Amino acid sequence: MKPMEIEQASMAIIEEELRVALPEDVKPIVKRVIHATADFSFAESMVFTPGVVEKLRALLSRSATVVTDTQMALAGISKPALSRLGCRGLCLMAEADVAREAQARGVTRATVCMERALALPGPKLLVCGNAPTFLDPLVSAGPLTDVGVIGVPVGFVHVTEAKEALLRTGLTCVVARGRRGGSNVAAAIVNALMYGMEGARP
After folding, report:
1. What is the gyration radius of the CA atoms in the chain, in angstroms?
2. Catalytic pick from 35, 55, 84, 179?
3. Distance between CA atoms of 3 and 12, rounded to whole angstroms?
């Protein structure tokens, strides 16, 4: 089978086995997360703020910068789709000056990365799949415009708390409640958003 045929067959199986009724706008996103994880629990744990799919696609249509908390998440995001939409992907975690600043301030590199991401010009999609402290600066950032967030870090420490804090900010976001998540989940959400836009896929 060709790759696209395998994907289509997988999506058909997911559709058949899905037992949770989902709004039509979010269903393709949840299905792609299940496709990436084989974990149907995401159909119940994922939270979508009102109008988030339309709003995030609007950001992407305006050549948003997609900033991830890990190189792994960035690697999983379709570069051809980003290019076709006029967007760029960026991860700041490996930059030496980020590490120096984090050490000097006694904070995580992820925190510094988010602060720098928020200072970037233009629309931004901020994507967290691993480091919950990447989300922390959003709580005290004040009103933000032209910003959307994917908040799906995985783990045991500060993970559920960071996600719930993100939801309380009122920002446009997609969150996977609880401990589950990951860079592959984050990338799957971004890809699903892009694949639902005209011209993103050949």
Report:
1. 16
2. 35
3. 14
Do β-strands 65-68 and 88-91 pair in parallel, antiparallel, or remain unpaired? Answer: parallel
Provide the 3-class DSSP secondary structure of residue 94. coil
List, for the chain, all residue ranges whose pLDDT scores fall below the cut of 50.
none
Q: What is the pLDDT of residue 1?
A: 83
Query: According to the model, what pLDDT value does residue 202 have?
Result: 77
Alpha helices in the chain (DSSP H): 3-17, 27-37, 42-45, 52-61, 71-76, 79-84, 96-105, 109-118, 136-139, 159-168, 183-195
Q: How many residues in the chain?
A: 202
Q: Residue 158 catalytic? A: no
Give the three-class secondary structure for 19.
coil
Dihedral pair phi/psi, residue 47, rounded to 5°: -120, 130
Closest by CA to 126, choosing from 81, 92, 159, is 92
Query: Which stretch of DSSP H or E encloses residue 124?
Result: strand 124-128
- 91: β partners: 68
Which of 79, 75, 53, 71 has its CA nearest to residue 148? 53
What pLDDT does 4 receive?
Answer: 87
